[in-house]
Amino acid sequence: MSQTLLVRSTKIRTTSLYRSLSLASRHYSNQTLKDKFSEQIPSKIEEIKTFKKEYGKTVIDKVTLEQAYGGMRGIKSMVWEGSVLDPEEGIRFRGYTIPEIRKLLPKVEGSAEPVPEGLFWLLLTGEIPSLEQVKALSNDIASRSELPDHVVQMLDNLPRDLHPMAQLSMAVTALESESKFAKAYAQGVNKKDYWSYTFEDSLDLLGKLPIIASKIYRNVFKDGRVGTMDTNFDYSKNLSHLMGYTNNDFIELMRLYLTIHSDHEGGNVSAHTTHLVGSSLASPYLSLAAGLNGLAGPLHGRANQEVLEWLFKLREEVNGDYTKETIEKYLWDTLNSGRVIPGYGHAVLRKTDPRYMAQRDFAQKHFPDYELFKLVSTLYEVAPKVLMKHGKTKNPWPNVDSHSGILLQYYGLTESSFYTVLFGVARAFGVLPQLIIDRAVGAPIERPKSLSTEKYKALVRTIGNQ
Ligand code: CMX
């Protein structure tokens, strides 16, 4: 090669290398969530493979008979990448506490609260996105909001007194018709690509949930009319507007609400059910609907409705007399009638739920003198002492559901049977990232072992004789 040719070809190579490098860095700053996650998959698969190979036979836990009969409490037997719950400290999302994510996750202009789209990115990738990336994600999600006619018609035909959670679960189930995963699976797609279709379904689902939730809200309690998503709005602003709430503070509340209600590690009923059903390769629609059915139980997500109804009965009974003595009596009456104090206790936590504290912080900032906030605050002083004296619950402190209802009441969203629907929308942000991860790493179908009491007795005898 002549000198001139060599110089020219080096120059061309350098220029094209420079161009591809600059493209790569531009690509990086504009990198979509799907690109980012796709890039991480090979190393995640390798990490799990090596870890299992090296430590696969390590005994990580022992299980007692009490645990087998006691709702499997505390048994370490699931993998959940997005969050870990510590009994004393509370939830950490990919290592970050709630106060940390409130500070670190991107915020849209004029807002002090993080957006749940940012948390979704963090839960899926372990990285905090830029504001630009979050905005692109909000836009992408909002562009997927259209509902098929049969879902709209079904919702319009449901009886108004059917619980909003049943309506939500039915609508999500009926959206199975839209599942890209189910279609691809039927066409025999390679299992390596399952995650990609699960990702698409997950974003589609997130996009459709605000319309579904608002349709349910407006069908049951208002005029049945719902607008459309605005691709320039963030998720919480869209959801609030669709429901008919345009107050900026309410939108702020929704940003906080959706973010902190999203994920609470994998063992809770809604997260575990979504994961379990998803492990059979049911589509994200059917998997999430199953999780929502679990969330609808009064000991889980529906506790937010129970709290409000219980508080209103209290208010009626004490007739404005919010002294500690009258509240204490009401608490004992509830306990003595064989019911639980809704919004108190937790299967894992042994301290006040940080999600309760975040909502308390919001109330203190926005409406410290609100009557129901004062009532909830007095309860916080009285109920733990009563529950400790009662001596049954392992955790006498308030959980997330203890506070959420009165925040919504303040802004005029008074229909408490709708509250768990908002929890359900939020939960989608927490459970869908894990479903995508499960499909990317090829998580197996879940199948723990059960025994009959007779077999357990035999097992205990055998162990005793050893
Ligand atoms: N009021 C009265 N008794 C309570 C209680 C409460 N808030 N919380 C627990 N207990 C009782 C239990 O019913 C149980 O009684 P039994 O021995 O008679 O069965 C005993 O205390 C021990 O229960 P635990 O080990 O402390 O709690 P669990 O892990 O079994 O249950 C939970 C956890 C959340 C279901 C329970 O604390 C409860 O029922 N709380 C009220 C409902 C509620 O707020 N649920 C929302 C939780 C958060 C969420 O998932 O959204």
Description:
This protein is mostly helical. Among the domains are: 135-300 and 415-441, Citrate Synthase, domain 1; 302-411, Cytochrome p450-Terp, domain 2 (Orthogonal Bundle). Helices cover 62% and strands 2% of the residues. The protein has helices spanning 3-29, 33-55, 65-69, 98-104, 116-125, 131-142, 149-157, 164-174, 180-186, 194-221, 235-243, 248-260, 269-278, 284-295, 303-318, 324-336, 354-366, 371-390, 401-410, 419-441, 453-465; strands at residues 83-86, 90-93. The protein has a two-stranded antiparallel ribbon with strand order 1-2. Helix 13 crosses helix 20 (419-441) and helix 17 (354-366) packs parallel to helix 19 (401-410). The longest helix is centred in the middle third of the chain and has 28 residues, at 194-221. It is globular and about 65 Å long. Bound molecules: carboxymethyldethia coenzyme *A. The site of carboxymethyldethia coenzyme *A has 21 residues, from loops.
- Quickly name the level 1 CATH class of the domain at 135-300 and 415-441: Mainly Alpha
The hetero compounds bound to this protein are:
carboxymethyldethia coenzyme *A
CATH architecture of the domain at 135-300 and 415-441: Orthogonal Bundle
Query: How do the strands line up in the largest sheet?
Result: 1-2
Please tally the helical runs, counting DSSP H or I stretches of 4 or more residues. Answer: 21
Proportion of helical residues = 55-70%
The CATH superfamily of the domain at 135-300 and 415-441 is Citrate Synthase, domain 1
Q: How do the helices and strands follow one another from N- to C-terminus?
A: HHHEEHHHHHHHHHHHHHHHHHH
Protein name: Citrate synthase
GO cellular component, one term: mitochondrial matrix
Keywords: Transferase
Family: Belongs to the citrate synthase family.
